Structures are given as structure tokens and as C-alpha cells.
Amino acid sequence: MKNEPTPYDIAPLASSWARSLRARDLSQNTLRIYAQATSQLRDFLLTYRPDGDDSDARPAPTALEGENGIHREHIEIHITRLRKRTSPGNAHQHFRSLKSFFNWLVAEEEMDRSPMRTLKAPTVPEVEVPVIPDDALKKLLGTCKGKDFEARRDAAIIMMFLDTGGRLSEVTVRLQAALDLDINVLHVLGKGNRERPAPFGRATALAMDRYLRAAAKHLGRPLEPTDPLWFSVKRKEALTIWGVGSMIERRCAQAGIPHIHPHMFRHTFAHLWKVRGGNDDALMRIMGWRSRQMLSHYGKSAGEARARQQHRELSPGDHL
Asked: How much is the average pLDDT of 67-96?
């Protein structure tokens, strides 16, 4: 019985691509997304066996390109399986990342042609992200009414999400130096490593001040500008994005409300801003958007509720 040929391993090229990306000073979140895409493609190629609907497909590639190389068909099957296993949005994100990877291989003359050159990205159905109802927000914050360090911290994090519309990584991965309580601004690092000021209100400033005093007592020393903005309870180390997500999940369970993903705060912020007549240009600056298409995308959340409210205010019949 002949030994099966060894599948091609893209790991060395993926590592080279990662070094190239780091040299472009991309954000850590972007680097993580790209690395995850190549890692999952590598796992797929190394373990791939045609079966089921793909039983007549090409065998696993044993070379980068050529007759036994990575073909369009391999990528299609990988993306299709990824879409079924995870979600259309995740499959779409991986598709875009892998297209950049193969384009880089062509630019570096590792390949003559990309196997994805004629592939079209998988469609992503429009999904309206729900906004967080006011009563749920009150219940969530109600679980953080204590005076201990953890309660002060969790209340400040939730208020910061709600009041800035910041992304999970923007609000979480920050140092003390990024916070300015004199002008109520958190300097965040958004997509493309673009820094912007994220303003917040008086209630959030008060919650932050209480948290910072509790944090100093928790650490047993004054806070330094180089300290992380958020600390964990037991290890007294920087709180990670996973730690923040777990905290919100735990608080939701305590409040007896459905799970809230941190990104829902961003949609809720945009919704409330528009409900209260906020300026679109100002919203774009606060959220870090460069394209007005994002106004439409985020505007879909609770759009019908805003339309009903506007109708109550502007009803032609009521103004007769």
C-alpha cells in the first residue's frame, strides 16, 4: 500500500505574510483576524479529504500551485464548510482575509496566479442588530450597585460602552494615559490604527472616577499612566477583551436579561443618538467612520421605532 502524499503546509508563507502585515503597523485586532484566517485554511488543507457533496472534488493539494497545487475548488469548499459551521459573516471575513493573503503571494512572486482571482465573496444577509432596551440597561447597571472594586469597575465599563459607542477592543485595550477626566474623553485606537477622541458624559465620568479610586485601593498604590485602564479582580492584571465579554455575560445572567454582546452597545449608542436628533457628521466622528454607508448600516437598528416616533411628531393628520 502506497503512502499518501503529504498535504501542502502553508504555515511558513503565512508566517512571512504576518511579518509583512506587522511591518504595515496594522492594529492587533486586524492581525488577529488575518492570522485566524490562514490558520484555519492551513488546518483545512492538512486534514482535507473529499467526502459527501465533495466526493468527486480534487484531493488535498501537495504543492502551492500547479496541477497538484491549491485550487479555487479547495477555497470554495473551505469557505462553504466554514459558512455552515459558523456564520455567513465569519465566512465573508475569512474570504476577504484569504484573498489578501493570496494577492500578497502573487505580489511576492511565490505564485503566478491567485486561486481566488475569479471567486466572488459569499453573500452576507442583512441582519438588524437589536438595540438594548432601556429597562434592560437599568437592570444590567442595577447588578453593579455595590461599592466594592468589581462593582465599581463593571459599572464604569458598561457606562463607557454605552456612552462612547466604542468597539470592544477600543474600550478595553487602553492604558490609563488614554483617559482624560478633565475634558471627559477616552482616546481610542480604531480600525487602521487611527486614534480618535471618544467623548463621554458626566454620569460616565462619575462612574470612572469612582472606579479609579477603587482601583488604586485594589492595587494598594497610586495608578500610573502606563497602567492598563481596566484591572482583573484576582490577578490584578490587565482585563482582556474576553474578560470583558465574560463580565457582561455574567451580569446579564444576574439581571435576568438576554445575553448582550458588547457590540450591541455600539448599535444602541447610534440608535439613541439619532432618536435624540444628533447630527450625522458628529456621529461619524465619534464612531470613527469614514464612509456614510455606515450611517445606513447602523441606522437600521430600531429604524422602525424611530420612524414611528418621527411620525408621532410630524403626523400630517395631527397637524390639520
From this structure: 94
Specify burial of residue 234 (Cβ count, 10 A radius: 0-12, 13-18, 19+).
exposed
Q: Looking at domain 134-304, which CATH architecture does it have?
A: Orthogonal Bundle (1.10)
- Model pTM? 0.69
- Of 152, 38, 55, 166, nearest in space to 95 by CA: 38
Mean pLDDT of the region 36-62:
86
Report the alpha-carbon angle 93-98-99, nearest 5: 100
User: For the chain, what is the radius of gyration of the CA atoms?
Assistant: 24
- Mean pLDDT throughout 62-86? 94
What confidence score (pLDDT) does residue 1 get?
41
pLDDT of 142 strictly over 60: yes
CA-CA-CA-CA torsion for 96, 102, 103, 107, nearest 10 degrees? 160
295 exposed, middle or buried (CB, 10 Å; 0-12, 13-18, 19+)? middle
Q: Do residues 119 and 76 lie in contact, with contact meaning Cβ atoms separated by under 8 Å?
A: yes
Q: Which residues pair with 238 in a beta bridge?
A: 231
Where are the chain's structural domains? 11-107, 134-304
Residue 320 pLDDT > 90, yes or no?
A: no
